[in-house]
Amino acid sequence: MAILISSPLLFRYKKISFSYIKIIMCFIMCFISFALLAIYHLNVDLELMKLTLYGMMILSSSYILVEWVSHFRPNEVKIIIIESILLVSVFYALISILVFTSPTFNDLFYSLYDSTFLNDEFIDRRIRTSGIFYGGFSIVSVYFSVVYYIALSYGFTYKKDNLYFKVIPLIFIFVIIFTGRVGLLIVMLISIVSIFSPRKYMMVSKRLLMLYIFIIFSLLLIFLYFYYDQFSKLIMWSFELFINLFSGRGITSSSTSNLFDDMMFLPDNLFLGEGFFYLGKGIDGVSSDSGYIMLLYYGGVISMLTYISIYLYIGSIFAFGKDLVLKRMGLLITLLCLILNIKDIYLFGISGITQIYFILLFLSLKNTAGLKHE
Q1: Do the Cβ atoms of 183 and 189 come closer than 8 Å?
Q2: Between the CA of residue 86 and those of 153, 356, 362, what are the distances in Å?
C-alpha cells in the first residue's frame, strides 16, 4: 500500500511505461468481463473479481517498486531486487522450520501472528506448516521451489564464488519438506532436468546439484535415524508419492486420488458457467480445489480462457526477453501456474508467487545492464 501511495511522487520524474499500461489494460478487461458475468448470473459472488483486483494491485506495486529502485540505483536494480527476494525467502524459510520443530517458538510466533485453523491442526498432527504464509500449503511449497530455482540460476550465473548462494538452495529444499509435496516434486524435476539437459537451458551448476542431492539424502538418513518417531507422520506424508511409486502402487497420493476422483466435474452451462466461484458445498459452492473447475463454474470457458490468455501474454514477454536468467525464471513460473491450477487456485491473488512473477516481469522489461558475472 505504501508503494502505491508513493507512486505520484515517482511519476513526477518518470513516465509510465507503455508495457505496464498494456498489461494493466488486460487486467481491466478481465475484471470487466467477470463483472458482466456476475450481472448475467445475478449473483453476488465477488471472489474472482477480488482476486483480479488484488492481482492489479500487486502488478502496480511491483512496477512501482522496480521503478523506484531503478530511479535511485539504475545499474544495480536487478541485483538489489533479486537478492532481496532471496533474503526475504530465507527469513520465511527459517520461520517455517522453527514453528514446526520448536513448540516454544510456535506458541510465541502464533501468539503474535494470525494463522488458520487448518494450519494449527496440521502442526498439531506433525504433518506440515504454512509458516509465515496465512494459508495455502501447496502454494507455500511451490513458492519455495520457485525461489530454489532463482537461487540456483542467479548464483550460478552471477555469484559462482559466493558461499551464501551455494547454501540457500539447501535451506529451501529443507523447508519444502515441512510445507508441501508439490514443491518437493518440482524441486526434483528441476534438478533432474538440469542434470540431464545442456547447461544453457536451465543455467544451473550440475556439479552443485549433485552435491545437493548427496547432502540432502545424507541429512535425511541422519534425520530418520535420530528423529523418526518424532517426525514419522511428516516423513510418510512428504514422501507418500515416492513410497507409493516404489511399492508398486503407482504415481499417486491421497491428495491426487481425492482431486481426480472427487473434485473433477463440470458445470451444466459449460460456456457461461453457474456464477459462483468460492469453495463450498451445495447449490452455491464448488466442492473442488481445482482452479480451472472453479473458473468454469464461475464463468465457463470464457472466464477460464480469459485468465489463461493473461498468463500466455506475460509468458510471451518473458520468452522474447533479452535477459536469459530472467527469461528462464519467468517461463518456469508461467508454466507452473498454468499446470498447477489444475490442483489448486494459482491465480493472481496468491501469496508470494504473484509478487515474484510480476517483479521479474518488470525487471525483464528494463533495458539495464545491471548484473555482471563474477
Answers
A1: no
A2: 12, 10, 17
Query: Predicted confidence band at 356 (pLDDT cuts at 50, 70, 90)?
Result: very high
Q: pTM, whole model, 2 decimals?
A: 0.85
Interval 104-146: pLDDT, tens:
877 787 777 766 656 666 666 555 666 666 555 578 888 999 9
Cell 542467479, residue located: 154
C-alpha cell at 163: 558461499
Which is it for the CA torsion 268, 274, 280, 284, positive or negative? negative
Which residues face 286 on adjacent strands? 279
Beta-carbon count within 10 A of 186 CB: 23
Q: Residue 8 above 70 pLDDT? A: no
pLDDT tens digit string along 172-215?
A: 988 887 777 788 889 888 988 888 888 777 778 888 888 888 88
